[in-house]
Amino acid sequence: MRVFLTGATGFIGSRVLREFLAAGHEVVGLTRSQSGAAELARAGASAYLGALEDPAGLAKGAENVDAVIHTAFDHEFSNFVANCEKDRRVVAALGFVLRGSDRPLLITSGVGIGDPGNGEPAREDVFDAHHFNPRIASEVAGQEQLAAGVNLGVVRLPQVHDTRKQGLISPYIEMARGKGVVAYVGEGANRWAAGHVADVAKLYVLALHRAEPGARYHAVGEEGVAARDIAETVAAGLGLPTVSLSEQEAKAHFDWFAMFAAADLTASSTLTREKLGWQPAGPGLLQDLRDMDYSSRQG
Q1: Contact 153, 214 (CB under 8 A)
Q2: Where are any strands of DSSP class E within 241-299?
Q3: CA of 291: how far to CAs of 111, 128, 167, 281, in Å?
Q4: Is the pLDDT of residue 98 over 80?
Q5: Tens digits of residue pLDDT in 120-148
């Protein structure tokens, strides 16, 4: 299979690339630079030069392939809303190229979109079109493409981690470093789902091989890790104190991160495991946080 992979040199995409190459597929990887093209060539993939800011250009990369996997995302979280809108335009452009065929398009979203709203973990069979997370834009665009006949599926991500990056926790670490304290809200009982990047990459392969229109999968290895446990582990690594903040204090302390800081973002992957036989085996989030090198800035 010839696969067009966006985000092919990124944290998650580079691992997805390895998995697809190991499975014997040909991969055309999106990159915005010649250095990225060289990196892809060394890995055994070919390169397609483009950028998320040019969805029409990305769509051309999807014209002569058997499948498309979209993992690219602009992770400048201080511009999160605008970046989610950017992703919506990319999903629409990629989907338009694939209409009228059974070629699968696998896009990426967040597990929070599956929140049932009753305090239980997010599920794959729930689509909350009014969720507070701006990343809803990606799945709304996906639903539109699905309705137009595109063979579209979704991989929803929790906090994806190894000892180098940990999703939203990476900017949280840098925020703590800058402020001199590691903060959590209230008792820190709210939890975040997590998945090791190696397990997440394997899930993309299984999901694309199944190619089920409308399927949603949760790349969740741990249903929920408590915010206070995360804060205390980070504090030990940075050599900083922890502090509990009220919700009002958290708004001033966290700025754009405040909407996530107090959120309970638990998620289940029961349906994903049953449907795909996916069995995550990587280290847990707290283990990776304990094993990371805090002398290095987070990307």
Answers
A1: yes
A2: 242-245
A3: 25, 35, 16, 17
A4: yes
A5: 999 999 998 887 788 899 999 999 999 99
CA-CA-CA-CA torsion sign (218, 51, 63, 85) = positive
Q: What is the pLDDT of residues 212-258, one digit of tens each?
A: 999 999 999 999 999 999 999 999 999 999 999 999 999 999 998 99
Closest CA to 68 of 84, 85, 55, 82: 55
Using alpha carbons only, give the angle 124, 127, 131 rounded to the nearest 5 degrees: 120
- Contact (Cβ atoms closer than 8 angstroms) between residue 200 and residue 14: no
Residue 119's CB: how many other CB atoms inside 10 A?
8
Compute the radius of gyration of the chain from its Cα atoms: 19
Q: Is 212 exposed, middle or buried (0-12, 13-18, 19+ CB in 10 A)?
A: middle
Alpha-carbon distance of 89 to 142, in angstroms, equals 10
The pairing of strands 191-196 and 222-226 is antiparallel
Using alpha carbons only, give the angle 246, 248, 249 rounded to the nearest 5 degrees: 65
DSSP states of 188-200 as a string? Answer: ---EEEEEEHHHH
Helical pair 80-98 and 136-147, crossing angle rounded to 10 deg: 20
Across the chain, the runs of DSSP E, i.e. the strands, are: 2-6, 26-31, 46-49, 67-70, 104-110, 151-157, 159-161, 182-185, 191-196, 216-218, 222-226, 242-245
Phi, psi torsion values for 87, nearest 5 degrees: -65, -40
How many C-beta atoms lie closer than 10 Å to residue 107's C-beta? 25
Model confidence pTM above 0.85? yes
The pLDDT of residue 159: 97
